[in-house]
């Protein structure tokens, strides 16, 4: 049975034994922090849950340095750390009453989901589409487009591209871990005290993450668990880009574009297909953006920085 919800609805349709929920998690712990109550509600109704793990979260050096008392982290150490984090995810799922076989891991590079999106051969997109097709969910929890972690925003775009490739339209539920809500109406998961306690118990499986960020992660997991249904931009809309960057930044700016037809490109700001709109803004003149496809754009600054989160992030145009 397909799940549907009216725009602006304040609650989800009831879950049943036929509900098939796919949780797309860029890293181990995203499924628990943002979806722990949702998972429990589907399982309590007898529904089926699968977690699609994009990366093993192995590019996570500071907790690894702290716990392993080492400074240098080579490929072998990263691989071992990734296995440790995946094992934590398996334990968290067990605590959420999700069987071990419900985990499907794609093994993409941590902090490299955007690179997967830009692959000219589209191997990552094909793998993601295959995973979606095999499970055939009617409900997909996916990172919000506006999430400021670069892996999360790119994951949203890839899921939208993969579903378009398959020609399927399950109910999409955005979840936000990093950043602020974009104001869309949200569905709030109202957990019982027992479910809230179980969610925190599942989070406790992530010893690697709690070592240095325990307070922050417990606060994230303790927030009201909200999901929003993305509202596609109507075909034929000519929306301006939301950014008006200073000309001083132009030499360092990069514009990434992707469409539901499977096309993805990255440009310098000066070579990007942009035009002024006469009101101080910019509009995208990429052919895919004018062909009726869902189209997404991301603005970023090509400067090395220890800060991993996006300043501008993604926008649907």
From TrEMBL:
Gene Ontology MF annotations: hydrolase activity
Superkingdom per UniProt: Bacteria
EC number: 3.5.1.-
Pfam families for this protein: PIG-L (PF02585)
Keywords: Hydrolase
InterPro entries for the chain: GlcNAc_PI_deacetylase-related, LmbE-like_dom_sf
Protein name as it appears in the record: PIG-L deacetylase family protein
Species of provenance: Rhodanobacter lycopersici
């Amino acid at each position: 049975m397909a799940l549907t919800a009216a725009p602006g609805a304040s609650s989800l349709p009831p879950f049943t034994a036929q509900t098939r929920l796919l949780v797309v998690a860029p890293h181990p712990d995203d499924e628990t922090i943002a979806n722990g109550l949702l998972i429990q509600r589907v399982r309590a109704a007898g529904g089926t849950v699968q977690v699609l793990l994009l990366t093993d979260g192995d590019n996570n050096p500071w907790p690894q340095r702290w716990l392993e008392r080492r400074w240098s982290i080579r490929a072998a150490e990263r691989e071992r750390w990734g296995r440790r984090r995946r094992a934590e995810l398996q334990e968290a799922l067990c605590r959420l009453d999700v069987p071990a076989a419900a985990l499907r891991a794609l093994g993409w590079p941590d902090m490299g989901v955007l690179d997967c999106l830009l692959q000219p051969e589209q191997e990552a997109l094909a793998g993601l589409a295959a995973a979606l097709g095999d499970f055939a969910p009617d409900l997909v929890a996916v990172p919000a487009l506006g999430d400021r972690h670069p892996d999360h925003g790119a994951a949203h775009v890839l899921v939208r591209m993969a579903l378009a490739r398959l020609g399927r339209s399950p109910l999409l539920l955005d979840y936000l871990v990093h950043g602020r809500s974009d104001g869309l109406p949200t569905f709030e998961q109202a957990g019982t005290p027992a479910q809230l306690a179980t969610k925190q118990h599942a989070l406790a499986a992530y010893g690697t993450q709690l070592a240095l960020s325990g307070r922050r992660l417990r606060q994230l997991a303790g927030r009201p668990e909200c999901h929003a249904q993305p509202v596609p931009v109507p075909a034929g809309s000519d929306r301006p880009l939301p950014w008006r960057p200073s000309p001083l930044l132009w030499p360092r700016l990069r514009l990434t574009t992707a469409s539901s037809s499977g096309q993805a490109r990255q440009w310098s700001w000066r070579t990007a297909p942009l035009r002024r709109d006469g009101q101080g803004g910019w509009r995208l003149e990429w052919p895919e953006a004018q062909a009726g496809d869902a189209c997404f754009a991301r603005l970023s600054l090509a400067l090395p920085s220890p800060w991993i989160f996006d300043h501008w992030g993604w926008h649907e145009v």
